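Narrative of activities, Objective 1.

The group set out to show that a structural description can be obtained from nothing but a protein's sequence at a throughput compatible with the screening campaign. Below is one input-output pair from the validation batch, recorded exactly as produced.
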Amino acid sequence: MGVSLRIVSWNIEFGLRPDEAARDLTEHDDLVGADLVLLQEMDRQGSESIAHALGFEHAYGAAAVFPGTGRELGNAILSRYAISS
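Output recorded for this entry:
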């Protein structure tokens, strides 16, 4: 039997409503059980919040400062498995 890896990629749209995203990742049938969650347009705090709700390791990288708001947005990798670097 082969090994499988379930990956979810999600643009959270300006990092808004991370609590709703965390809830969906723990309750929605198509999202539950992900091994890796790749998030776009996130801020550091939202990324950490979702990772904590899932019990996942996480890494975040800022990509840009959003015009008008000054919010730093970027990409996050959330992993069921340890992230070493």
